[in-house]
Design goal:
Lipocalin, mainly beta, 2 domains, 4-stranded antiparallel beta sheet
């Protein structure tokens, strides 16, 4: 199915041109970049979007954060939109402290997996994953990390039904912060986790899931400012 805004590729919607701006504006446009519609989602306070994906029903799911529940912090904010950008539902998660949703993916049952970070006491951030049902209600949620600041910037599904996440950690590794990759099973349990980097600040911002014979590829921000490709089976970890 194609309508200029999204396509179904091997059963999973894929956005051709979907921009979620930091102001909370969402633009859906055709491959020629002529806007089909534009919407601004505004609580009247400070809102921003970090991730958006087309969904199987022709609509979209958008992730980000808002301080609508707490002026001194943020709650992770998810909006389910129809094909024209109208809100079907929206939820704020963990609005009492500091929390942001940095990545969202739709699952085969119509639910969602969401990743980011939470810091309910304004002390140390923990990486955070939520499994949601199709209406956005929490099925389970788990935190990951140590005594420092840890966060997930990207998440992808893997062929075994689990997830691969990338971000940064100051709890583990050798530097000020290190790039951090975690492999989870379908229930959010850690199968393995690795850190990568030197003595300066490093973090992973996005990644692509490995396939047979192909490496896992990540993009990073480093003290050396050099992007890296990390093949499976050739990782340096903690």
């Amino acid at each position: 199915m194609t309508d200029g805004c999204h396509a179904i590729d091997r059963g999973r919607p894929r956005v051709r041109r979907l921009l979620a701006a930091l102001t909370g504006a969402l633009v859906c446009s055709s491959p020629a970049y002529a806007a089909q519609w534009a919407q601004i989602y505004d609580t009247g306070l400070l809102d921003f979007a970090t991730s958006a994906e087309a969904t199987a029903d022709g609509g979209f799911i958008v992730a980000g954060a808002t301080n609508v529940l707490n002026l001194s912090g943020f709650g992770a904010w998810l909006l389910k939109l129809d094909t024209n950008g109208a809100i079907i539902w929206q939820h704020v998660y963990d609005g009492a402290g500091e929390a942001t949703a940095n990545a969202v993916r739709q699952l085969d049952d119509g639910g969602y997996i969401v990743a980011g970070f939470r810091n309910p006491t304004f002390t140390d951030r923990d990486a955070w994953v939520l499994r949601l049902d199709p209406d956005g209600d929490v099925v389970w949620q788990k935190s990951y990390g140590g005594a420092g600041n840890d966060a997930v910037k990207s998440l992808e599904r893997t062929s075994d039904g689990g997830y691969i996440m990338a971000g940064y950690s100051t709890s583990f590794g050798a530097g000020d912060s290190d790039g951090w990759v975690l492999k989870l099973d379908a229930d959010g349990n850690v199968i393995w986790q690795k850190t990568y980097g030197g003595t300066g600040p490093d973090e992973f911002n996005s990644r692509s899931a490995p396939s047979a014979g192909r490496p896992m590829v990540v993009t990073s921000r480093s003290g050396r400012q050099t992007p890296r490709s990390v093949p499976e089976g050739n990782r340096r970890g903690s």
